[in-house]
Structure formats: structure tokens, C-alpha cells
Amino acid sequence: MDATPIAKILPRSPTEGVIARAALDQLVTTARNRRLTVVVAEAGFGKSTLLASWWEKAPCAWYTADQRDLDLPTLGRQLSDALRLRVPDIPSDVSWLAEGAAMLLPASTSSSPDDDHHHSRSSG
Q: Which of 43, 47, 75, 87 has the fewest C-beta atoms lying within 10 Å of its C-beta?
């Protein structure tokens, strides 16, 4: 079993010249009251920067999806690793997660993760 790359479960460090967006930063309070928050925008609109700032302020996990996540057991294990950074007591055996997801998905379902999409899961 391969180790989860740290770049998939930790946000990048903020870069210089980040524009402060107070209205968006305030939304972290709303996001904390929800089980799942998804941020969608075109490339270059600051999704990763915004979510990285939330990651520092809120109990959430960071996960960068890519093509390897089409393999459900790998996705389940790596999501568990991301969650375990914030909730250390999560069981390490998450094979049931991938098996359960596979049973819920129709055989014709396909997915195409994009390196630029990040998801924030609030423990809310």
C-alpha cells in the first residue's frame, strides 16, 4: 500500500501578494455549520488560496483530487488519511468506505477529478 503524498492532504503555503477578501473569509463561519462545503470557480479565481486560509481557521480536511482517485480503495484510504490529520481517532481501516461507495455507484458512473478542485469537509 502506497503512502498518501503529503501534497494531497495539506494545502500549499500562502504566497506573497494574496488579495484579502474579507467577505469570503467571513463565509468560513457558514461553512463550519455545514457537513460539506464545495467551492467552485474557474482557474485563477483563488479557490485554493481561499480554502487554504479556511483550513487554518476551521476544523476541516484538505484533499486534492487527481486521476489516481478513480480507484475507490485508494480514494477511501487517502481521504481517511486527510481526515485523520484533523481527527486522529478515525479508524485506519477504511476498506468498508470504498466498498460501500462502489455498491452505491451505478456501473456506468464515471468520474474525472481535476487537480485544481479542492474540497473542504467541515466537521460541523
A: 43
